């Protein structure tokens, strides 16, 4: 059996354009038939959200399954919220998650081309047009899966109502076989308010000054995104990023 080795690199591009957060888009590359184009599904999605003060950290673990009898290649485009960059990227290699190493764009291109010449598969996360990040996922084994982790941090701002607002889009166009979402709000004297939630089963429950909400679903398609409003405290420490 052919073994694939991967070096994961992130080129840092020193310019930025900002767009509103949208949904990740996955495309099968070089598909020969319509069946192959639709062969890869998001099988498992695990989202962990942690909010401390005015800083929110979101980590998404995504498992893609190839239900065809052919090895495929996929491309995932991941839009980020305005003013936000990816802070974590990991890809499974031989069953273990490997964290990315950030390097400058020119060096990343050099390493990428050198690895390809040695017939080793490089994992590359790059910033493209707008505030979008793109990565290639290869190989997607026949009747097998690959897992990636994407994480980002963002500074929450107060709106006109003096409320910090966190929003996570969940507009997936098909059911996900295994879906989980956990949200933790640390050190909040005032209870956070849910402006929008995936469905009626999600709620934030108090554990001292910490509020936790969690859902685990099978064959699930969220009806809405997640919006959390945090009323301002006079003693709230603001962290500048």
Set down the secondary structure blueprint.
Elements: E1 8-12, E2 25-29, H1 34-37, E3 40-52, E4 55-66, E5 72-79, E6 86-93, E7 96-99, E8 101-104, H2 105-117, E9 123-128, E10 132-140, E11 144-155, E12 163-168, E13 176-186, E14 193-196, E15 205-207, E16 210-220, E17 226-231
Parallel strand pairs: 1-8, 1-9, 3-13
Antiparallel strand pairs: 2-5, 3-4, 4-11, 5-10, 6-7, 6-11, 9-10, 12-17, 13-16, 14-17, 15-16
Organism: Pedobacter jejuensis
Signal peptide: 1-21
Domain VIT: 26-154
Structure, described:
With 241 residues, the chain is mainly β. It has helices at residues 34-37, 105-117, and strands at 8-12, 25-29, 40-52, 55-66, 72-79, 86-93, 96-99, 101-104, 123-128, 132-140, 144-155, 163-168, 176-186, 193-196, 205-207, 210-220, 226-231. An 8-stranded mixed beta sheet has the order 7-6-11-4-3-13-16-15, with no helix packed on it. Strands 2-5-10-9-1-8 form a 6-stranded mixed beta sheet, with helices on one face. A 3-stranded antiparallel beta sheet has the order 12-17-14, with no helix packed on it. A hairpin with a 2-residue loop joins strand 15 (205-207) and strand 16. The longest helix is centred in the middle third of the chain and has 13 residues, at 105-117. It is globular, with a radius of gyration of 19 Å. The model is unreliable at 1-21 (pLDDT under 50).
How do the strands of the widest beta sheet line up side by side? 7-6-11-4-3-13-16-15
Mean pLDDT: 81
First and last CA, distance: 47 Å
Order of helices and strands: EEHEEEEEEHEEEEEEEEE
Number of strands: 17
Helix/strand/pairing class, anyone?
Answer: mainly beta
The number of helical elements comes to 2
- CATH class call: Mainly Beta
- Label the CATH architecture: Sandwich
* Fraction in beta strands: over 45%
Provide the domain count.
1
Query: What is the 3D form?
Result: globular
User: What would you report as the Rg, rounded to the nearest angstrom?
Assistant: 19 Å
User: Unreliable segments (pLDDT under 50, ≥5 consecutive)?
Assistant: 1-21
Largest sheet: 8 strands, mixed
User: Into which percent range does the helicity of residues fall?
Assistant: under 10%
Protein name: VIT domain-containing protein
Keywords: Signal
Domain VIT: 26-154
InterPro entries: VIT
